[in-house]
Design goal:
By secondary structure, the protein is of the alpha/beta class. The strands form 2 sheets. Strands 2-1-3-4 form a 4-stranded mixed β-sheet. The protein starts with a helix and ends with a helix. The protein is elongated and about 95 Å long.
């Protein structure tokens, strides 16, 4: 077994055996699922107590339109009972809705008094109901002034209320002539999630490489290791070993996700899926996405992006004596990385725009930005060209980083500048 494979094995096994790795790998999918489903489940839990609301309508035009629903009951009372009712608020009554004047002339003539904050569903129901009445009154008033037949106004109102529910079905026409229904919202959501995972993993594991290099250099362990192995093998062993740790974690998460998709009909009855779909939108489209293609491209882009950034992080880690000194070199790389993330978010709105296209071809930004565009089913040649440029760039970046690493890993007591790093590159 050569030195490179020994170092890879050491870096890989030492990390996957850590308790933190096991805990994070198991807990993270559960936490992500909890973030999505727990709020939905909690939102369906209703207060079993029925809330009584007294309605004082001095105009006599609005109270009858407020119908009791769910756990709210509306009780019409006279204005002369107002003082008596106020003593019951917070006890027998949840609140008092008082309408003191014509809402078509004074929109502030309605007020709700309660001891606790008004729930959003109750507030929304009252606002919507009163707004519809006011809108109807204003339309009728205009119809009377213009001497328009009442039935005509009823028909116009019906058209206004029903014509805003059109939803255009989006289809993609493939080269073989077949049509496939698509969802821009789902494509954007999938692209955004995978982009965030890509951003998180490359930054997390790239930084881990740099921390490992700095730690070994600070402890002088590297001086012992460098006597037995080449600096290039030492750097690449650490990069590949830590990268394999990240890929292992990703495969475990993808496996859990695939099992959930495969068992969706067992885990989630049709009624539950329909209920969740109504709350999350067209979630059924998730099951029609080509996940195999997306995961393959994700792994290719992750490996490419990780190798470039991890090489740079390893190079900077070798050039300094401690973690504090890495900030001056890491900041520009982090800014580029954050820029690519923001471009990726922007590209969700325009995945075929010039900014998205060119940033998906530049090696330092392409892993993030291209991952946003892939769910939108961009042309195959763009995906292949982006990956070819990325992997060709890896050769030059790794070669450059290895030369700096070879000099920097044994250099102590000096805080180098960018200019000196470039000089190190030319050392024989």
């Amino acid at each position: 077994m050569n030195a490179l494979s020994i170092i890879i094995k050491r870096e890989y096994l030492s990390r996957i055996k850590k308790k933190s790795f096991v805990v994070l790998t198991i807990l993270m999918p559960l936490l992500m699922a909890a973030l999505v489903f727990v709020p939905l489940l909690l939102s369906n839990i209703k207060d079993s107590e029925t809330k009584r609301i007294a309605v004082i309508d001095n105009t006599g035009r609005y109270a009858s339109h407020l119908k009791s629903f769910d756990h709210y009951t509306f009780e019409i009372v006279g204005g002369n009972q107002e003082d008596n009712l106020k003593t019951k608020v917070g006890k027998d009554l949840f609140g008092i809705l008082e309408i003191t004047g014509d809402l078509t002339e004074n929109s502030a003539a309605a007020a709700f008094v309660s001891e606790k904050q008004v729930p959003l569903d109750l507030q929304g129901y009252i606002n919507n109901t009163l707004s519809e009445i006011v809108k109807s009154d204003k339309i009728n008033l205009l119809a009377q002034k213009a001497d328009i037949d009442t039935q005509v106004m009823v028909d116009i109102r019906h058209v206004i209320e029903t014509s805003g529910n059109i939803k255009v079905t989006t289809l993609r026409w493939s080269e073989d002539g077949s049509e496939k229904e698509t969802s821009t919202d789902i494509a954007a959501a999938v692209g955004g999630i995978f982009t965030f995972i890509m951003y998180l993993f490359i930054l997390m594991y790239g930084t881990m490489v740099m921390q490992g290099v700095v730690e070994e250099k600070s402890n002088r362990i590297v001086e012992v290791m460098i006597s037995s192995v080449r600096p290039f093998d030492l750097m690449m062993g650490k990069i590949i070993g830590i990268g394999l740790t990240g890929i292992t974690q990703l495969f475990i998460w993808f496996g859990i996700f695939a099992i959930i998709l495969g068992l969706k009909s067992t885990l989630f009855p049709a009624a539950d899926i329909q209920n969740i779909s109504s709350q999350l939108g067209n979630i059924q489209m998730l099951f029609s996405i080509n996940w195999i293609e997306i995961i393959i491209y994700f792994l290719l882009l992750f490996i490419g992006g990780y190798l470039i950034y991890a090489s740079l992080f390893a190079m900077f880690g070798a050039a300094v004596d401690n973690a504090q000194d890495t900030q001056q070199f890491v900041m520009p790389i982090t800014l580029i990385f954050m820029f690519s993330f923001y471009v990726g978010i922007y590209s969700l709105q325009n995945p075929d725009g010039p900014l998205a296209f060119w940033c998906s071809m530049i090696p330092l930004t392409s892993p993030i930005v291209m991952m946003v565009r892939i769910p939108f089913e961009i042309p195959l040649w763009e995906k292949i060209l982006s990956i070819v440029i990325l992997y060709v760039s890896i050769f030059f970046v790794v070669k450059f980083a290895a030369k700096i690493y070879r000099v920097g890993i044994l250099m102590y007591g000096k805080k180098p500048t960018i200019k000196e790093l470039i000089k190190w590159f030319s050392y024989k």
